[in-house]
Amino acid sequence: MEGVKLPPLPPGSGSLPAAFVIAKDAEVLDFCGPLEVFVGAATKEGKPLFAPYMVAAAKDPVTVGGGMKVVPDYTFKTAPAPKVIVIPAMDMSATGPEMYSWIRAASKSTDVTMSVCNGAFVLAKTGLLSGKSATAHHGGFFRFAATYPDVHLKRGARFVEEGNLASAGGISSGIDLALRVVERYVGRDIAADVADGMEYQGKGWLNPDSNDAYAKLPDFNDEHPICPVCLSDGDRSIKSSHKDKTYYFCATGEKDFFEAHLDVFERFLAEDAAR
């Protein structure tokens, strides 16, 4: 399927406020990838399409992934009303209710509120995704489906759009969703020019269903144990049996979560069999 049948967005005169929500350990490419796209985008008249800003609970420097420090432009109390919100994966234990309240309130008037990677957990926690479709990093599929059963998880999607809400898959998928947002504002030709200027050769922004590599569970075998919860390497000393098959886990916490949510695993297996 090429493209998503959503209407174009009116760019106005450009300088659309684009808020990047950050907190401790925010995944750098999750927000810097879309930031690069938005900074490079212009209206058909050549004016900057976006006016990006960083927003957090306080204006103190935030230590994000890799130890990089980012100084927010605004707090949730002082930020201008955004037309676009970008939510990266972050340490959710370092977030507070003020952030979720701000995202909920601001999203009432956004053109697009988008999560990247496991920023989907943040967006889902606001309640805005309830009853809607979304995706996340493939390593977060199991935990996302168990934590937010009222959200329709789409495995194998590069990005998912529903109304003014959108979610991208893992990390680099945020670049594709950002290019898709640019396309909706100013057309495919300008979005393609932005991608070319970045020397970005990915074509995922043209096809939301292009993450097929992550559409199904991997092969679980003894030769190369894979944790069924987070899909990282499993530890042979941490294992559990289900329907006469042994599964290995990267940590005891993942094993416990798996055993508590076998319904999710059975659902994934059924979905895979039906593909």
Task: Kindly summarize this structure in a few lines.
The chain is an alpha/beta fold and about 280 residues long. It has helices at about 30-40, 95-105, 120-125, 140-145, 175-185, 190-195, 250-260, 260-275; strands spanning about 15-20, 50-55, 60-65, 70, 75, 85, 110-115, 135, 150-155, 160, 165-170, 235-240, 245-250. The two termini are about 15 Å apart.
Notes on the structure:
With 275 residues, the protein is of the alpha/beta class. 30% of the residues lie in helices and 19% in strands. It has helices at residues 28-40, 97-106, 119-125, 141-147, 173-186, 188-197, 252-260, 262-274, and strands spanning 16-21, 50-56, 62-63, 69-70, 74-75, 84-87, 112-115, 133-134, 152-153, 159-162, 165-168, 235-242, 245-249. The two termini are 16 Å apart. The mean pLDDT is 96.
Please count the helical segments.
8
The strand count comes to 13
What order do the helices and strands follow? EHEEEEEHEHEHEEEHHEEHH
What are the low-pLDDT stretches, counting only 5+ consecutive residues below 50? none
Provide the descriptors you would attach to this structure in a database record.
19% strand, two-stranded antiparallel ribbon, alpha/beta, 275 residues, globular
